[in-house]
Amino acid sequence: MKRAIGFIDSGVGGLTVVKEVLKQLPHEQIYYLGDTARCPYGPRDRDEVNQFTWEMTNFLVERNIKMLVIACNTATAAALADIRATLDIPVIGVIQPGSRAALKATRNNRVGVLGTIGTVQSMAYPKALKGLNRRVEVDSLACPKFVSVVESGEYKSAIAKKIVAESLLPLKSTKIDTIILGCTHYPLLKTLIENFMGSDVAVINSGEETASEVSALLDYHDLLDRDDNGVQHRFFTTGSVSIFQDIAQDWLDIPDMHVEHIKLGNEKGVYQ
Ligand code: I24
Ligand code: DGL
């Protein structure tokens, strides 16, 4: 019996990670759960994010996934250690892969990290980076306006360009030569970020790096699928099925995808 790789995220942003995995591992079956009804997680308390992340995890574990990818930086920061210590399947977050790639890219050991308020406050990136190389110096910056500008669909506009420039100004005066996009939505702003920071600064997409580690981890545990017989991806959302489907079909280029509405925890399952 084929078993799926489970992905959880606060909403649709984790689809940036799924896109990379589908590209690198086309035989794999995907189950994706986005908690769109309670998105965004970025400004919420760590305890609350931990609880929501556990609710999503339990939902997919009940569906017999072979591996769990926490495809949300805020959820990874709040719950990865806890979940990994409890489950008996491999669990991967987006923070470690992004950190590893940044250390590979930096020439001067000065790395910038962009993320939500929750991710930056948790210090999860500086801890992961310093755990891999204690000489690295890290400048973290919360960019709370970035998620809303991407979700407005205006992420290529002059408004987005202005928000990027204003938000990243504090990093211009630092010596960082590498920036980690520590939030699922920021890859959509990658070109604007690169243009503002200039060609001497490498920009790392944590989602892309995570996909490579998913592949390595599945191989290590001998869990890779060799053929795509009977692959039926499933997508679950706590919010509106039609909005989720519009965004996901467009982003993943999957013509007719299965999206199901589900309820988690105490949320009432009200369509948003
Ligand atoms: N992009 C994101 N979230 C949205 C959006 C978007 N609307 C347009 N685009 N909405 O995230 C989130 C709020 N919804 C979610 C569903 O339930 C109700 C509330 C980034 C997505 C990254 C895969 C712009 C847009 C799009 C398609 C692809 C990419 C993209 F419409 F940025
Ligand atoms: N998925 C979240 C992250 O990567 C961004 C959206 C949110 O704040 O929930 O941190």
UniProtKB/TrEMBL annotation:
<keyword id="KW-0961">Cell wall biogenesis/degradation</keyword>
<feature type="active site" description="Proton donor/acceptor">
    <location>
        <position position="183"/>
    </location>
</feature>
<protein>
    <recommendedName>
        <fullName>Glutamate racemase</fullName>
        <ecNumber>5.1.1.3</ecNumber>
    </recommendedName>
</protein>
<dbReference type="GO" id="GO:0009252">
    <property type="term" value="P:peptidoglycan biosynthetic process"/>
</dbReference>
<feature type="binding site">
    <location>
        <begin position="9"/>
        <end position="10"/>
    </location>
    <ligand>
        <name>substrate</name>
    </ligand>
</feature>
<feature type="binding site">
    <location>
        <begin position="184"/>
        <end position="185"/>
    </location>
    <ligand>
        <name>substrate</name>
    </ligand>
</feature>
<dbReference type="InterPro" id="IPR033134">
    <property type="entry name" value="Asp/Glu_racemase_AS_2"/>
</dbReference>
<dbReference type="InterPro" id="IPR001920">
    <property type="entry name" value="Asp/Glu_race"/>
</dbReference>
<feature type="binding site">
    <location>
        <begin position="73"/>
        <end position="74"/>
    </location>
    <ligand>
        <name>substrate</name>
    </ligand>
</feature>
<comment type="pathway">
    <text>Cell wall biogenesis; peptidoglycan biosynthesis.</text>
</comment>
<keyword id="KW-0133">Cell shape</keyword>
<dbReference type="InterPro" id="IPR004391">
    <property type="entry name" value="Glu_race"/>
</dbReference>
<comment type="function">
    <text>Provides the (R)-glutamate required for cell wall biosynthesis.</text>
</comment>
<dbReference type="GO" id="GO:0042802">
    <property type="term" value="F:identical protein binding"/>
</dbReference>
<dbReference type="InterPro" id="IPR018187">
    <property type="entry name" value="Asp/Glu_racemase_AS_1"/>
</dbReference>
<feature type="binding site">
    <location>
        <begin position="41"/>
        <end position="42"/>
    </location>
    <ligand>
        <name>substrate</name>
    </ligand>
</feature>
<dbReference type="GO" id="GO:0008881">
    <property type="term" value="F:glutamate racemase activity"/>
</dbReference>
<feature type="active site" description="Proton donor/acceptor">
    <location>
        <position position="72"/>
    </location>
</feature>
<comment type="similarity">
    <text>Belongs to the aspartate/glutamate racemases family.</text>
</comment>
<keyword id="KW-0573">Peptidoglycan synthesis</keyword>
<dbReference type="GO" id="GO:0071555">
    <property type="term" value="P:cell wall organization"/>
</dbReference>
<dbReference type="Pfam" id="PF01177">
    <property type="entry name" value="Asp_Glu_race"/>
</dbReference>
<dbReference type="GO" id="GO:0008360">
    <property type="term" value="P:regulation of cell shape"/>
</dbReference>
<keyword id="KW-0413">Isomerase</keyword>
<dbReference type="InterPro" id="IPR015942">
    <property type="entry name" value="Asp/Glu/hydantoin_racemase"/>
</dbReference>
